[in-house]
């Protein structure tokens, strides 16, 4: 049923229409370049851009109306205006309504936590597809509609983009949407209007404190996902919270989840418990002990952190009724996720691993995993991003120095900050723990990767941490193409004299 400007205004107390309330709205868009005939153009004001400045471009593309909360804004001739008291609050209500609540017509699985979200989402996708379901995925790396790949700019898109994407998935007959849900998205209500069915909590460690200020605020933001799955306004049945009970924040999440609980862990008693764990260079073997017996797994992926990820994904699949044989088959076929403990192979006699680890906990996990499979030395290349939590820089420097044999500190998306200043804060932590260990600071990331590969010898593992799947480097005045895997492959080729 076509939506009119009047039907949208009726949802918002205090909304006012300047123009024709019968104007038919065919789309909602905040990017003037994407406006089409019948678009309601959202005049969002960001840190660097004011949507009101782009009204003429939106009109030229076919936009018929604007929505704004600025009563003094430029009111364009020939366009209707929906004036609302608070634009952000209005969009949370209007956009899901406009698309007829697509999340109520598919099953939706949400994953939150500091680490593991991407790997878990891909594992769940694999298990659901093994069952024959059609699956959409919204994550850090990309949006996928079955095998169709779309680019993404935030872990969780804003409410306009997210509802548009979910509607697209519904139109393409997806049965499930599996999505990573960031703390920013929960705090900023980007997931407003999304009804979740199964939600997963991985862990909570220091990250994003530049935004949340305290770990308590960060934890409260994550807990909103568990409030949402328990909401009395939900229309679908069968709600489940899947929670890592080995993490200190696990019980807190369960306290916010008024629904079925599935816990997982290694140390503590849980619904799903990993036993007989063998972490090998070639993969991992372990058994998941659960209510109906034991599920033995022989995986292509490795690391204790992946044992946790596999249990989280298994819990979500079980919550959605996937039988154990399908879970086992999908997991044993699973080859990993781009930029997550990913090997760069070029015929060399040492290993090069690229990983997205950009938090203290993430770096510690991958270095501990590397140590367990390493025959010689660990050489770690890493940096910390600019305009982000500064307190973690010396912490990550210390962890790298404690768990590596050689440390090459470098840049990682310095953004508007001085790369040399960021590096100095990282080096503080390195020098606290390095002792007599070899450590170097090289601002240029390409040079740093080449240096690490150059000094690697037989049996070493070079760990390049921080960017993983990213193929860019964000500098003060521009964003350039930069892919750790490409640079590592070039460095290996150069070393081998090809």
* Strand coverage percent: 15-25%
Rounded to an integer in angstroms, the radius of gyration calculated over CA atoms is 24 Å
Stretches where pLDDT falls below 50 for ≥5 residues?
Answer: none
Tally of DSSP helical segments = 16
Count of individual beta strands: 26
Structural class: alpha/beta
Query: Main sheet, how many strands, which sense, barrel?
Result: 11 strands, mixed
Q: Helical proportion?
A: 25-40%
N-to-C span: 63 Å
Overall shape: it is globular
Task: Average the pLDDT over all residues and give the rounded result.
Answer: 93
Strand order, biggest sheet?
Answer: 11-10-9-12-8-13-14-15-16-17-18
Protein described:
The mean pLDDT is 93. The strands form 5 sheets. The protein has an 11-stranded mixed β-sheet with strand order 11-10-9-12-8-13-14-15-16-17-18, sandwiched between helices. It is α/β, with parallel strands linked by helices and 498 residues long. The longest helix has 16 residues, at 304-319.
Task: Give a brief rundown of this model.
With 498 residues, the protein is α/β, with parallel strands linked by helices.
List keywords for this structure.
498 residues; alpha/beta; 11-stranded mixed beta sheet; 6-stranded mixed beta sheet; 16 helices; 26 strands; 35% helix
Chain-wise SSE layout:
Layout: E1 3-4, H1 5-9, E2 16-18, E3 24-25, E4 27-29, E5 39-42, H2 55-61, E6 65-68, E7 80-83, H3 87-98, E8 107-112, H4 117-130, E9 135-138, E10 143-145, E11 148-150, H5 159-171, E12 176-180, H6 183-187, E13 198-201, H7 209-212, H8 215-229, E14 240-244, H9 250-255, E15 260-265, E16 272-280, E17 283-290, E18 293-299, H10 304-319, H11 324-333, E19 342-343, E20 351-355, H12 360-373, E21 378-382, H13 392-403, E22 406-409, H14 419-434, E23 438-441, H15 445-455, E24 461-465, E25 472-474, E26 479-481, H16 484-495
Parallel strand pairs: 4-5, 5-6, 6-7, 8-12, 8-13, 9-12, 13-14, 14-15, 15-16, 20-24, 21-22, 21-24, 22-23
Antiparallel strand pairs: 1-3, 2-7, 9-10, 10-11, 16-17, 17-18, 19-20, 25-26
């Amino acid at each position: 049923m076509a939506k009119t400007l009047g039907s949208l205004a009726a949802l918002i107390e205090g909304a006012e229409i300047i123009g024709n309330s019968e104007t038919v709205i065919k789309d909602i868009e905040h990017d003037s370049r994407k406006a089409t005939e019948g678009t309601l153009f959202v005049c969002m004001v960001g840190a660097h851009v004011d949507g009101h400045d782009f009204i003429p471009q939106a009109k030229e593309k076919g936009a018929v109306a604007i929505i704004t909360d600025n009563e003094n804004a430029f009111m364009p001739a020939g366009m209707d205006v929906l004036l609302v008291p608070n634009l952000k609050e209005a969009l949370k209500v209007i956009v899901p309504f406009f698309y007829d609540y697509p999340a109520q017509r598919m099953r939706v699985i949400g994953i939150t936590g500091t680490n593991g979200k991407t790997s878990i989402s891909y594992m769940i996708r694999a298990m659901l597809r093994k069952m024959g379901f059609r699956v959409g995925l919204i994550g850090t790396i990309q949006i996928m509609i079955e095998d169709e790949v779309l680019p993404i700019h935030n872990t969780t898109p804003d409410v306009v983009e997210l509802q548009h994407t979910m509607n697209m998935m519904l139109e393409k007959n997806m049965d499930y949407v599996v999505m990573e849900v960031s703390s920013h998205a929960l705090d900023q209500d980007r997931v407003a209007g999304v009804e979740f069915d199964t939600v997963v909590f991985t862990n909570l460690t220091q990250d994003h404190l530049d935004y949340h200020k305290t770990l308590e605020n960060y934890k409260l933001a994550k807990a909103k996902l568990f409030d949402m799955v328990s909401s009395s306004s939900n229309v679908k049945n069968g709600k489940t919270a899947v929670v890592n009970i080995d993490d200190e924040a696990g019980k807190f999440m369960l306290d916010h989840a008024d629904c079925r609980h599935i816990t997982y862990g290694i140390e503590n008693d849980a619904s799903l418990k990993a036993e007989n764990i063998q972490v090998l260079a070639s993969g991992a073997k372990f058994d998941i002990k659960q209510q109906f017996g034991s599920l033995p797994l022989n995986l292509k992926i490795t690391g204790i952190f992946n044992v946790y990820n596999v249990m989280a994904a298994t819990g979500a699949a079980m919550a959605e009724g996937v039988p154990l044989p399908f879970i086992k088959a999908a997991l044993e076929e699973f080859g990993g996720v781009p930029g997550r403990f990913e090997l760069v192979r070029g015929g060399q006699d040492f290993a090069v691993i690229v990983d997205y680890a950009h938090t203290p906990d993430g770096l510690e996990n991958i270095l501990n995993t590397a140590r367990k499979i390493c025959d010689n030395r660990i050489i770690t290349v890493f940096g910390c991003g600019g305009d982000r939590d500064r307190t973690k820089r010396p912490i990550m420097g210390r962890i790298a120095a404690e768990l590596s044999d050689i440390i090459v500190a470098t840049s990682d998306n310095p953004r508007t900050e001085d790369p040399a200043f960021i590096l100095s804060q990282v080096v503080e932590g390195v020098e606290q723990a390095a002792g007599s260990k070899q450590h170097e600071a090289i601002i240029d990331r390409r040079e740093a990767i080449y240096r690490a590969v150059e000094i690697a010898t037989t049996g070493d593992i070079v760990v390049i941490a921080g960017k993983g799947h990213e193929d860019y480097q964000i500098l003060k005045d521009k964003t350039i193409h930069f892919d750790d895997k490409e640079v590592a492959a070039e460095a290996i080729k150069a070393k081998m004299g090809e």
